[in-house]
């Protein structure tokens, strides 16, 4: 069964626009991750679900499709089952231009809804640490129309660091240990700590690894998260494109015309002897299947090795050599 957006917002199925907004407001405030530091991961998931439910139910067209065909029909997936009254939901959604996928930022939806003074986040996955105290003062402490004592919410910030990795380390996987120094003035933690990062085979540049609460103290009981971002070092022999590896080879014109063999030293210390029998033109690419990078989700599957070529022309030819070429090469 698909998601019940009405249940997620705790509102009736015949709720009007104002009721939908009130329901979102109540649930978003309840499940905001900054209000749930003890179960932050669960709160983040709930907060995202609440944002998705509001995104659908506050939009007339999306809500109409959802009411008729459920989440499956809205997203263009397999419907619960066609009938005379309810034709194939996936087909209907496709015909109406729906293939809905929630791509919103829950934090940004929250900010736009309340028009509060919080800083925008780049993405949902980057956390909720930029929420300003004014938002919580304005909304979290109001009860029954009376303004209570001003509430404060500790900022949950994060610090980012790059983690340089060689292409070989990303190919094989690696264990990286980094010593971090931190401000521990509000706690009795050790000032220095060694963090261990397991780099998985096939990870891409930009992959983030987060150590929650391992950075500087913010106040008692709260500390920064440290986020390491994978940085792929330049390799002398290969350029990476997704799961594929590109290797460039310089060859003389005679090889480009007559064929040749090239040896490639792989990232796992093998030597591939590759035979090229085609005439190598400017845009020619030789593809060697399965000799690229491993896929991060399935290391048994690998991308391809792509060989590109720079053809080097001779700087000069004798008259006799030119005559031989003229008599040998066809004029196309």
Automatic annotation (TrEMBL):
InterPro entries: DnaJ_C (IPR002939), DnaJ_domain (IPR001623), DnaJ_domain_CS (IPR018253), DnaJ_subfamily_B (IPR051339), HSP40/DnaJ_pept-bd (IPR008971), J_dom_sf (IPR036869). GO terms for biological process: protein folding. Keywords: Chaperone. Gene3D superfamilies: DnaJ domain, Urease metallochaperone UreE, N-terminal domain. Pfam families: DnaJ (PF00226), DnaJ_C (PF01556). Residues 70-92 are annotated as: Disordered. It comes from the Eukaryota. The keyword Nuclease does not apply. Residues 4-70 form the J domain. SMART domains: DnaJ (SM00271). One of its GO terms (cellular component) is cytosol. One of its GO terms (molecular function) is protein-folding chaperone binding. PANTHER family: DNAJ HOMOLOG SUBFAMILY B MEMBER 5, DNAJ HOMOLOG SUBFAMILY C MEMBER. This is J domain-containing protein. It comes from Cymbomonas tetramitiformis.
């Amino acid at each position: 069964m698909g998601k019940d957006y009405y249940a997620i917002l705790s509102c009736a199925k015949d709720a009007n626009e104002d009721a939908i907004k009130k329901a979102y407001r109540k649930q978003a405030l309840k499940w905001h991750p900054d209000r749930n530091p003890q179960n932050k991961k669960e709160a983040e998931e709930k907060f995202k679900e609440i944002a998705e439910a509001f995104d659908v139910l506050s939009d007339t067209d999306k809500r109409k499709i959802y009411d008729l065909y459920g989440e499956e029909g809205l997203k263009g997936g397999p419907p619960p089952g066609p009938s005379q009254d309810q034709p194939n939901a996936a087909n209907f959604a496709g015909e109406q231009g729906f293939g809905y996928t929630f791509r919103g930022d829950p934090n940004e939806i929250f900010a736009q809804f309340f028009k509060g003074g919080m800083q925008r986040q780049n993405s949902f996955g980057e956390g909720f640490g930029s929420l300003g105290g004014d938002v919580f003062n304005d909304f979290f402490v109001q009860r029954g129309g009376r303004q209570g004592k001003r509430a404060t919410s500790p900022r949950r910030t994060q610090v980012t660091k790059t983690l340089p990795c060689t292409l070989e380390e990303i190919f094989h996987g690696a264990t990286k240990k980094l010593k971090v120094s931190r401000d521990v003035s509000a706690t009795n933690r050790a000032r220095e700590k060694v963090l261990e990062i397991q780099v998985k085979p096939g990870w891409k540049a930009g992959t983030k690894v987060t150590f929650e609460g391992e950075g500087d103290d913010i106040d008692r009981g709260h500390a920064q998260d440290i986020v390491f971002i994978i940085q792929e070092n330049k390799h002398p022999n290969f350029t990476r494109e997704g799961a594929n590896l590109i290797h460039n080879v310089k060859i003389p014109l005679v090889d480009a015309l007559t064929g040749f063999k090239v040896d490639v030293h792989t990232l796992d210390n093998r030597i591939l002897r590759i035979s090229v029998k085609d005439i190598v033109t400017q845009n020619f690419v030789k593809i060697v299947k399965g000799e690229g990078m491993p896929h991060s989700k399935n290391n048994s599957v690998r991308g391809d090795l792509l060989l590109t070529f720079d053809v080097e022309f001779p700087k000069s030819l004798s008259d006799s050599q030119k005559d031989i070429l003229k008599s040998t090469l066809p004029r196309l």
